[in-house]
Amino acid sequence: MNTNDITPTKGRLKQALDNAVTNRALPQITRQIETTVDEEKIRTGRVLKFYHYLDKALVELDNTDETVLCKILHRFGGELIDLYTPSADSIEYCDDLHEPCIIPRCSLNCLIVNIHDSDSDEFLLLGFYQSEELVELNPAAPGNFKIVSIGGTNQFWIKFGADGLDLRLPNTATTNVGDMDKNMEEVDYADSTNVYTKQEVYNKTEVYTKEEVDELISKAIAEALGDE
Fold first, then answer.
1. DSSP tag of 31
2. Does a structural domain hold residue 126?
3. Cα separation, 41 vs 36, whole angstroms
4. Total domains present in the chain
5. Which of 31, 98, 183, 204 has its CA 20 to 30 A from that of 196?
6. Domain around 138
7. How buried is 122 (Cβ within 10 angstroms: 0-12 exposed, 13-18 middle, 19+ buried)?
8. pLDDT truncated to tens, each residue of the chain (228 aa)?
9. Cα separations (Å) of 71 from 117, 122, 174?
């Protein structure tokens, strides 16, 4: 029987509309909404590479092999910015970004979110979280802020707040006063295809042995004492 021979009635039209909406349109719309919402959720991952000169990190998403490049979120901005560089298991050269990168020694579990940036498809690293309970580590006292450096045999910290300032350091504290270090210049990196010889890296013609340096130092001290 040809469908053109069927007389349309309100009941038949309602049934056809219900089938079209319920069985076809709604499932597709629901899947699209779920996919969109899932993409916008905060996701967890682990830092694979930390680009300390770019202030970015390559993160592997949990329960997937997907990796994304993330900007780092800071607590402060403008003239005051907080910077963090993790301890390195190794420092390598990334052929993809042509930048040095740190392979973190410890597992850095992080939270990331997709951001709508027309200039790039990078994500945003919101911060880090501890996947396991902290043991043998005293938290900050009420009304205090604490930054802890956890090593294999010791801990060092800065505590500040209602209880005053408390520093535990590996060495005597040092301070520097003055203008920005003039040696803080932009660093140019060689690409991975270039290999430099010793002469290209250090091309000075005058080279002294340790014995010659010691002799020159002793001579300079003697001359200075003689002037006195």
1. H
2. yes
3. 9
4. 2
5. 183
6. 134-186
7. middle
8. 455 555 656 665 666 666 665 666 666 666 665 555 566 689 999 999 999 999 999 999 998 889 999 999 999 988 899 999 999 989 999 999 999 999 999 899 999 998 876 677 899 999 999 888 877 778 889 999 998 887 767 788 899 999 999 988 888 888 888 776 666 555 555 555 555 555 554 555 666 677 877 788 888 877 777 655
9. 11, 7, 32
169 in a structural domain: yes
Residue 102 lies in a domain: yes
Angstrom distances, CA of residue 155 to CA of 43, 107, 144, 171: 31, 18, 18, 13
The span from the CA of 50 to the CA of 56, in Å, is 6
The answer to whether residues 54 and 84 belong to one domain is yes
148 lies in the same domain as 126: no
User: Are 139 and 177 members of one domain?
Assistant: yes
∠ at Cα 129 (101, 137), nearest 5°? 105
